[in-house]
Design goal:
about 600 residues, alpha/beta, Glutamine Phosphoribosylpyrophosphate, subunit 1, domain 1, Rossmann fold, 8-stranded antiparallel beta sheet, 7-stranded mixed beta sheet, about 25% strand, binds fructose -6-phosphate
Amino acid sequence: MQLVIVSDITRRKLDYINVTLILKMCGIFGYKGKKGALNTILTGLKRLEYRGYDSWGVSSLKKGKISVAKKVGAIGDIKVLEREDNAVIGIGHTRWATHGGVTKVNAHPHYASDKSFVLAQNGIVENYQNLKRRLAARGYKFISETDTEIIVRLIEDELKRSKGLQKAIIWAFKKLQGRNTIILLTKAGRIFAVRNGSPLVVGVGKDEIFIASDTLSFADKTDDVIFVDNLEMVVLDDEGVNIFRVSDGKRRKYKLQKLDHRDVSIDKAGFPHYMLKEIVEQKHTVREAVQYSIEELKGLMKSIKSAKNVYTVGSGTASFAAGQIAYFLRKYASIPAVELKAYEVDSYKQLFQKNDLIIAVSQSGETADTIEAIDAAKAREAKVASIVNMVGSSIPRMSDYPFFTRSGPEICVVSTKAFTSQVAWGLLLAFSVAGKHKFVKRSIEEFSKKLEKYFNEDLFKNIRKLAKELLRKEHIFVLGREQNYYMSLEGALKLKETAYKHAEGFASGELKHGVIALIEKRTPVFVIVSEDDVKDDLLSAAAEVKARGAWVIGISSKNNELFDNFIPTVDAGIADPIAKVITFQLLAYYLAVELGNTPDKPRNLAKSVTVK
Ligand code: F6R
């Protein structure tokens, strides 16, 4: 198949800074090949399921007719839909509901009235109410409650005037406000996809082409990819892939890029859930994150040393890793690095300067808030480094110094191994800047070996027992300090996400300034104690809460008489924060299991969903 690619990144209608960021994390997948379209789409959607998992739909073309099958719930077996899978072209969608409840009718793709095309969207039409009102006044009826159906009706309406579907799609697309990436399958055997905001990539295999929300969804099929930029339209037909810019319809040639996908396997490898598998995988993934040579780090290290200000940014769990990285840079390399919350960018963006460096931390590489912070830094000519897990995602492509955690796909919506890899990489960076590159690598290597032994049935039983004792507790506190401060925040977040418990992480120094008022008889308080300079402070905090009736649970490599319960951790030296946070990951996992929650897909969450 011939490749003709056109793009325009100079004249964007919108950019990440200007739009109101409300990103719906759905997943889209399109396929054109020889046969087996439905199975290929289904496999792709399963790999995209982390982006949304309340309902899904697939659509294929056979004998000039487009069929649609939709279901509520997890992505199921294609055999339910069709016995023989002879289709050569189709699209699919996995949904995380925003407009309209989780129903079969609201699942995508949505038919055109005459069934000449179907359409699915990843994004939100922010002006859908206005558009809907106008379309309704013109006599259009709506079957679903979704904003996506508005796009279908807009295109239909424009088709009455426009010459051809391509023009009608572009016209309709320009009417949409927000971040919308859409995909259409037509009766004539073509796939159209247009990107704005939400990611879109094309994979080119032998006699088959994929269009999807990420490269992971087709990573088992091809490494050859084309990244679609914002405000570009992909047209997939018998001639191959064409990409047009939305602004003026022009195109340009483009080369395929090769992706380095290391571990792309996404099965549970015998574990009951991805969460447990990914927690245990940390014994290897922490090592993978520090494989960079001093040569590979040189550019970034130079930039850190010459930067006027060094900031780290991220959202959620990744923001805690960003905080930890800034802490390591301050503590071990005397670099005055500061963590900033990506979603607060409006409050500090005017401070970015030409010689600043920002280090962006993200598992997905697609988080809208983090991208917005990067855009703000770039607009003021600051340099950008990033540590990202998803190869081929947007953030590394926006970075002057892109680095990868190389943890393999993190399928569980709750981040575990990506977080500890980000922290391990932070150690590598800080110690390398301090001239101790060999030392940090050796330390993580030793820690990884200790973890091999640490993950065993006794540990799992011990933590599961504690989880059972905590089942009826509604408020849980976690105290940390210095190297374990961000671990207390992350530990508490894990408990919130999977156990739906109110858990709060605090710096132990905060206790006397107000938090201690919350302590009642049998209030569970976790105390994270490392063998470091602040050990005694933590033990004092444990004594203070214990004196007020708290149930003190020690997370430490050494037991102490102050602990009512004790979960032993690996004594990990510089990697101790990682050793400590693993306890909370396991506890969050077993609490979810005991409570009957779904650890891999907690309620209301989608991976990297960002709302501003
Ligand atoms: C929590 C979690 C989220 C993400 C956050 C940023 O377990 O996964 O808090 O860390 O949404 O996502 P990324 O890391 O993809 O930028």
